[in-house]
Amino acid sequence: MQECPWCHTDLSLRKLILLSDRLSFCEECGKPIRNSRVRDMAAGTLAVILGLGLAVLLSNKVAMLIVLALYPFSKVLLTRPLKVEVEEYLCQRCKRSDVGYRRPRDPICADCLDEQERSAKKG
Ligand SMILES: [Zn+2]
Ligand SMILES: [Zn+2]
Predict the structure, then answer these.
(1) Is the pLDDT reported for residue 47 higher than 80?
(2) 87 CA to middle of ligand 1, Å?
(3) Is the pTM above the cut of 0.85?
C-alpha cells in the first residue's frame, strides 16, 4: 500500500484514488501531501491502454466502461504520495511554515486565528 510520506500511515483507498497533483492533506496527520504529477498521468494512461487492450478481446462498446473500472486500480497502483514542501504551504498571514493549524485546510495558522479572535472581541 501507499503510505503518507510524513506519518507513514497507509492512505485509504478513497484517498489514493482521489489524490491528484494538487495540494491535499493526510487524513491521519493533516500534513500537506500531493500525488506525483508523472504518476497521476501514468495512472490514466495505463487505464486507457489496458482498457483498449481488453476492449479488443471483447467488444468496443464496453471499452469506456473498462477504462472507468480500471482507472481506480491503476490509480491506487501508481499513486505516489509526496510531501508538499513547506514553502508551498505557509500561513497566509504571518508567512511562517513551522506553525500549527486548527484544521488542515485553514489558510492561516492557529496563532493568527487566536489573534484575529482576540482583536474581534476587543472590537
Ligand atoms: Zn500522514
Ligand atoms: Zn500565522
Answers:
(1) yes
(2) 18
(3) no
